Amino acid sequence: MSTIRMGLIGTGRIGQVHAESIAGLPETTLQRVADIDTASAKSTAERFGCHASSPDEIFTAGDVDAVLVASPTMTHLDLMVKSVQAGIPVLCEKPIDLEIAKVDAVRDIVNGSDVPVAIGFNRRFDPHFQEFRRRVFSGEIGTLEQLLITSRDPEPASTEYLAVSGGIFRDMTIHDFDMARFFVGDVVSVSAQGYNQFSDDIKALGDFDSTAVALRSASDQLVLISNSRHAAHGFDQRMEALGDKGMVRVDNVTDTEVRVYTADRVEAKEPYQNFFLERYLDSYRLELAEFVKLLRGEEAHCPTFDDGRMALVLADAATESAQSGQTVSVSLD
Ligand SMILES: NC(=O)c1ccc[n+]([C@@H]2O[C@H](COP(=O)([O-])OP(=O)(O)OC[C@H]3O[C@@H](n4cnc5c(N)ncnc54)[C@H](O)[C@@H]3O)[C@@H](O)[C@H]2O)c1
Q1: What does the pLDDT look like over 189-222, one tens digit per residue?
Q2: With a 6 A CB cut-off, is 154 part of the ligand 1 pocket?
Q3: Of 179, 209, 182, which is closest to residue 194 (Cα–Cα)?
């Protein structure tokens, strides 16, 4: 089978990771890269031996079989629709957008087309979480009753980034809302608390630095999510599932399993893998491999446009709940 020629839009932090994945996968080649920062597109093109393009050329050049959108969030919907209208399958980074009205305005265009569209909720593809999920549904712990998700960044992103991020629920918890749905399906209500525990900068933006969210699923399972924009001990990414016959847990990941025992500490490990570019590196490659299966018509489980939309619906509900102090019901339409 011929390789899939990919066009990558956005060559920033996550764009570089995707470029590596595309170049590394036997089924894909990096054909074109585009960025409004033409110097960034050019240097990435030189590094990977492909064409530097304008974003529009990706859709018109005629030599791109699939597009990966890794530009900022406010560009996602527009580029997704352009790709669908050009008949080119698209894998688009999360979040789908920050405004549900804009998402709903293009929903019929995307869902009414048979062009494959996938959203980059990479954590679904993390090998540790995949194994955790397999064990949760293996029957070992009986019926799933509660899911606990801990997701804390080592330190806050820059103020410039946070100012346009859409707030902690839309920017950070969005991954956890998707993971919650990946385990318990439809969510019917959201209760959230937000705090300003440590960052005056984040408070000045009208955003929270620490949050706790409780979700109730359509089948009465509970999901508890703890987020913080800082964690002194490092990137803290854990999950725990309680069933009527036991519990499954997935802990943080270190580079080695070597443990040190001395007079003042026992079982000491190296620090956790640092932030998403290390901790979730495998997941970006596996997310792309799943997208390739979708393009080849094989059985594939890529997050859909509506998965992206529902994560944003939950983020909006959490924002409303944290501001009002009320539990917010979720419409499943
Ligand atoms: N799935 C994940 O784990 C993950 C991690 C990081 C970022 N993201 C998402 O990826 C997106 C990009 O984030 P980032 O951290 O790489 O940002 P970034 O600022 O590092 O990179 C964005 C790049 O896009 C370019 N750009 C801006 N507008 C453009 C346009 N109209 N057309 C083409 N290129 C344009 C910028 O010049 C920049 O090079 C965001 O939506 C973010 O939420 C996802």
Answers
A1: 999 999 999 999 999 999 999 999 999 999 999 9
A2: no
A3: 209
